[in-house]
Write the structure tokens for this entry.
Amino acid sequence: MKHFMYAGLAALLLTGCSLSAQDQPAKTDQQKPQSASQKKNTADSGDKKSASELQLAARYFNKTKTVEGKQVIQNPSNILALVNKTYILGDYVPKDLVRPNVQFSFGDQDIEKSYLRKPAAQALEEMFAAAKQDGIDLFMASGYRSYSRQKNVFDAESQKVGEEQAEQAVAIPGQSEHQTGLAADITSHAENFLLTQKMGEDKEGIWLAKNAHQYGFILRYPKNKERITKYEYEPWHFRYVGKKAAAVIYKHGWTLEEYFQHVKKI
């Protein structure tokens, strides 16, 4: 077959044969340059898509009530609840807590922090499985944390470093995303199952930062965003917000606070 092809090519070269204008393949629509109107339509389509990304149903915004000078969230089961030092949770306990089928840094202990809300747990399972396929071994270190448990954590940190410094690293009870059941602290063998900023430089932390949004998670406290989040950089802390919101937040490099500054309520 190769000899036949070479012979045919040689014949063409010897006879000076070439395709005539009539024999040339017609340009497809994709090959034709776009007209000004076509370019405008494409741009308009992109603008509409971008605008729709920034439209958000009213039910996803915090509904708050001022209690003793604090903004207490009245719809804490909202998957996009913005929990921080301004908007706090009361005695909320999620009703759909389940134990995800993933590896835990503390083994198989069936304890409070091994639980997440069902949608977050399912997404975490998918994310860990995808990471495994890429040669990344992840472990969940902490999920749901009750108000009382958060108080114990904060008090312990305050005793070590003082209350003011503790507030930079540990949430005051009611201000922790872990109480929503939608936040997961993730660690690895490389970090000896600890939670350290060095994880952001490890392959596990890099993989999570680049891929978590595909499963509905965001890096909640990014580097150089401390002024906005009021918390130190935490490359281990990922918050479930759903795939749509996560994609927009990742695309723009926003925090959850910034996301709510840009979206329009509909």
The first strand starts at residue 55 and ends at 56. Residues 1-31 have pLDDT under 50 and may be disordered.
